[in-house]
Design brief:
Rossmann fold; single chain; alpha/beta; four-stranded parallel sheet
């Protein structure tokens, strides 16, 4: 039986999203399914005024083999994205003003309007590609009666229930390349190089970047001692023939006594933070007199074409999602568990992000990844 499938990408873009979209479309056409792209993430279903042709053109994109044939060659998402949560709208679209929507802490919950638009679109299933913020509403939507299949994506690799999220491998590949390039500059000037990467609550990106570049790192899951950190860095700097040292830090990392000021929250309620790398630079320079170089790698990690791992996993996740839809299943997320492809329940938002297991993955004395005792672990060295 032919199905009408919606697909959207929410939150920050990562390489590999277009590979998912292409596989869904190609697999869908093989099975007489119609695929409707919903543009700008959840905004496409909260701000869509279905009776307006202009609004439909803005937020809907019919997908077929012709307009998805080459999209996997590029990064980003052809459907565009946004950080909009249907349960936390700070302002209503004009056509919804005056509606009777629940309101909590100054934000409207327009879930009922989302369901109405899904009904207008005659969708049998919806594929949602996103991180914890985007998938939190996917979880809610499925409980409101819509058939939903989720696909995890995030450079932080912090989605519950899976050992891997689309975008993670490319982020590490980009970070590694950038650090290796900048090594010559840091060494030439005999400095302390500090590299900031994404990781608001979880330190997988910093930890794995440090793992493959043999650097020390700070992650949100463990509060370091600043005096000890500086001692380790300066000793390593002195012991290095070129008299330099480099260090990776998650955006959410902290040291004892450090309290970053909180900036306004985004649409998912995540509070942004100022650059912890610059704060660390001030401390290191002030306490040691050493000159530092700070490099913010964050947005470069999500730019450009996906690497092989992300293309392979993204495409496979897209096909797994279609398997589930063709079997009439719902409430599931594509995942890697014990290194194997599978489907798991869409994570409950109350679980929060997946965190680094500090006891097994992080050396709390040396502020480095743990390298020993990896026998029998799945490819990404951690279990879901």
């Amino acid at each position: 039986m032919a199905k009408r499938i919606g697909i959207l990408t929410g939150g920050g873009d990562v390489p590999g999203l277009n590979s998912v979209i292409k596989e869904v479309v190609y697999r869908g056409t093989e099975n007489e399914c119609e695929v409707v792209g919903i543009r700008r993430g959840w905004e496409g279903l909260t701000h869509l005024d279905y009776g307006s042709e202009e609004s439909r053109e803005k937020y809907l994109l019919p997908l077929d083999r012709a307009n998805t044939r080459t999209i996997d060659r590029f990064g980003g998402t052809v459907l565009h994205s946004s950080r909009v949560s249907p349960t936390q709208l700070r302002s209503l679209p004009k056509f919804l003003e005056g509606g009777t929507f629940p309101k909590n802490d100054g934000a409207w919950d327009v879930s009922s309007h989302v369901l109405k638009n899904i009904e207008h679109l005659r969708l049998d299933s919806l594929i949602v590609i996103g991180g914890d913020g985007t998938l939190s509403f996917a979880h809610r939507l499925e409980r409101l009666g819509m058939k939903v299949i989720a696909i995890p994506k995030t450079m932080d690799n912090d989605v519950q229930g899976t050992e891997y999220s689309v975008g993670f491998s490319t982020a590490i590949t980009r970070a590694t390349a950038a650090i290796q390039r900048q090594r010559t500059t840091v060494a030439s000037h005999e400095r302390v190089g500090i590299f900031r990467v994404f990781g608001r609550d979880s330190g997988f990106t910093a930890l794995y970047t440090a793992y493959v570049t043999s650097l020390r790192c700070a992650i949100p899951e463990f509060t370091v001692n600043l005096d000890r950190l500086i001692e380790l860095l300066l000793k390593e700097k002195r012991d290095t023939p070129s008299n330099y040292v480099m260090f990776v830090i998650s955006e959410g990392a902290r040291w004892e006594g450090y309290q970053p000021p909180l900036l306004p929250a985004d649409a998912y309620g995540h509070r942004r933070k100022p650059s912890v790398a610059e704060a660390l630079e001030t401390e290191v320079a002030g306490r040691s007199g050493e000159e530092c170089t700070v490099s913010d790698l964050t947005y470069d990690l999500r730019s450009g074409e996906a690497d092989f791992v992300d293309k392979m996993i993204a495409g496979t996740f897209g096909n797994l999602a279609m398997d589930a839809i063709l079997e009439g299943r719902s409430g599931l997320m594509t995942a890697l568990v014990e290194g194997c492809y599978t489907l798991v329940p869409i994570p409950d938002p109350s679980l929060g992000p997946r965190m680094v297991d500090v006891a097994t993955l992080y050396n709390r004395d040396r502020y480095r990844p743990n390298y020993a005792r990896k026998m029998g672990l799945p490819i990404f060295l951690t279990r879901a």
